[in-house]
Amino acid sequence: MEHKTKIEYPGEMSQLVTDLCKLRYDVLTQFLEMLSFVLVMDGLEDKAKGKIMLGDALCSASKFIEDSAFCVKEAWKICKPFTKEN
């Protein structure tokens, strides 16, 4: 897999982060869950190729992001009753 050094986005990385943080918490949770899934899959693939330390690091990162997704989901549960549907 080729790892890019830039993401195609019409702005700086800081703007991307700002835009992600403006997402409604249920949508942000979905993003984090998908990111976690991709990282764990990459980690398992690396482990299968004998790249154990790399795979372990990616799986660990995935777990931390999964934990973050759980916390954001909890924030959504708190905010949802006060949120107007778009």
Give an overview in words:
The protein has 86 residues and is mainly α. The chain has a domain at 24-81. It has three helices and no strands. It has helices at residues 13-21, 25-48, 52-79. Helix 2 (25-48) packs antiparallel against helix 3 (52-79). The longest helix is centred in the last third of the chain and has 28 residues, at 52-79. The protein is flat and about 50 Å long.
Spell out the key features of this protein:
86 residues, mainly alpha, 3 helices, flat
Task: Describe the structure concisely for a colleague.
With 86 residues, the protein is mainly α. The protein has a domain at 24-81.
Distance between the termini: 38 Å
Shape by Cα distribution: flat
Measured on Cα atoms, how large is the radius of gyration? Answer: 16 Å
Helix content: over 70%
Order of helices and strands: HHH
Low-confidence segments, ≥5 residues, pLDDT <50?
none
The helix count comes to 3
Q: Provide the residue-averaged pLDDT.
A: 94
Q: What structural category do the secondary elements indicate?
A: mainly alpha
Topology (SSEs and partners):
Blueprint: H1 13-21, H2 25-48, H3 52-79
